[in-house]
Amino acid sequence: MRAIGFSSAARKLTSPRLPAPGPARIGPGHPLGGVPTDTSRRAPPRAIFDNVSNNGRFAVPDTEVAIIGAGLSGIGMAIALQRAGIGDFVVLERAGDIGGTWRDNVYPGVGVDVPAQAYQFSFALNPRWSRVFAPGAEVKEYLDGLADRYGVRRHVRLDTEVTERIWDEGGRFWRLRTPAGELTARFVVSAIGAFVDPKPADIPGIDDFTGTVLRSSAWDPGCDLTGKRVAVIGTGASAVQIVPEIARRAARLDVYQRTPIWVGPKLDAPIPRPLRRLFRRAPRVQEAVRRIATRGVEMVLIDLVVGHGRAPWIAHGGARLARSVWYRTQVRDPETRRRLTPRYGLGCKRPSVSNTYLRTFNRPGVSLITDAIDRVTPAGVRTAGGHEREVDAIVLATGFRLASDPEVFRRTPVRGRDGFDLATFYTEHRLASYEGISIPGLPNHFMMFGPYGWVGGTWHQLVETTSAHVVRVIQEARRRGATAVEVRPEPTERWTNRMRDRLAGSLWATNGCATANSYYFDHHGDTPYLRPTSAAQAARAARTFPLDDYAYTVPETTALGDPASSASPASETRPA
Ligand SMILES: Cc1cc2nc3c(=O)[nH]c(=O)nc-3n(C[C@H](O)[C@H](O)[C@H](O)COP(=O)(O)OP(=O)(O)OC[C@H]3O[C@@H](n4cnc5c(N)ncnc54)[C@H](O)[C@@H]3O)c2cc1C
């Protein structure tokens, strides 16, 4: 088996040994306030951990599960816990509201770029989507509705950023540092999303600009760009949505492009009221539509990439068709069209859809600028050729730091067992995981979106699959009376190697992606973004993976409270 770095040498950093915690549970006196204790009617008694506490050697953490992040993943995970009868959990959210992506991205034109029928949970269909591609505000409304309907809000602690996660081997729980104080949790689920932080704008002079600077992910809805001269920097998926909207109202628009994006037609339309009524009355019909839409998205975003070797003509033919028909009908000026057309293969970078983006470049007053930016001046943007264009506002649509970026975990460190440090691991080793969820060295810790973790066509499939896996492990830990659960290195290496092998013949490896500048590629040159299996296989794996792929540490007091005779504080369970 090819080793991928989970030897003890990979965990050499110093492990902060912290004082043993007190047994206090979060309540009104806790710095994080009165988090409800068990709120689920179906929740079993907390006998296991209480007995552990009675042993006197292991303190009870503040909460059984802490979910970090209250976006789509955090809310979905919270619902899964509730449905499994695990009611003792908190959701820690750094912002002042829930909703993640759909709370932050409120720029003009924001919306899903997959059909909304696919962008919803299978257990919570929304018959009210107004369009095939729903606007962002409707997604936020959907998430708010879910949080209300499933009683998630009372578990959420807003304005609570987790700045550090530290595994406490003595107590067998996680210490989560937040500006409001420390919280201890037996299990941690990281639901911080794929696009964790906006990339810092490393454009010289940006701080000296005297006009308005807007970010796609932190839009100021009060800022009116009507009649203004505007520069948009970046041409990714957000820019594809923003640019046509700004062009409509700005006096002049300059779009600065480093890498062009493949943009296909958007088969969008309002969903007629009678159809919405039908969805409300016959959810089975809507469920059938959801399945078809989800499978369709999966075919485009996954099958095409993973199966490229078997049918390269699809991506090549698609690119040829786009170039010779679609781009021709959209962009009048041949030179502008040439510059808007990617030279890398279709699929190397996440493609987008729009019926207005490419056409925007036909408008008078809209310029596509492909010269490299030299710097921002107090009055505008200067390119490497020395040409300066004055503007009143600059819109930064320059992308995000992904969850695979070590920098994210340098800012908010994750320190596991025996000195394992996630940022160091991601820097020094190729990314790896078990089922896209767990990593050796991080006991009792799960990632909603880990390496090779993007399941299926839309995020909801990922959340439903991952949460099923996490719930299974927590339930098994409860059953065995284990206080620590850590995925074993061998199944992790086996699984990761399988994923890498499957990607070796993928479109990303073979379709001329070198110039794509795509977030699918990480800092090692790997493509650990998606899970190269079908969503159905991933869902099956979540239900059936061998539970002994995890090692369980059971305190020497059994769940029934019998003190064990051994002097050692804990033992690893043998396979059940
Ligand atoms: C503009 C845009 C459009 C998109 N469109 C689509 C689409 O059409 N289809 C699709 O499948 N995907 C799309 N995506 C991807 C989208 O991010 C996912 O679909 C999904 O919303 C991710 O949900 P999440 O909860 O995992 O992450 P997020 O929505 O990013 O939520 C993560 C949450 O964690 C919080 N958080 C992060 N770090 C901490 C911390 N240290 N402490 C406490 N809280 C923290 C954040 O504040 C945030 O609320 C889009 C993304 C963007 C940016």
Automatic annotation (TrEMBL):
One Pfam match: Pyr_redox_3
Superkingdom, taxonomy of origin: Bacteria
Gene3D superfamilies membership: FAD/NAD(P)-binding domain
Polar residues composition-biased segments: 565-576
Positions of the UniProt region annotated as Disordered: 1-45, 557-576
InterPro entries the record matches: FAD-bind_Monooxygenase_sf (IPR051209), FAD/NAD-bd_sf (IPR036188)
Protein name: NAD(P)/FAD-dependent oxidoreductase
Record organism: Actinomadura montaniterrae
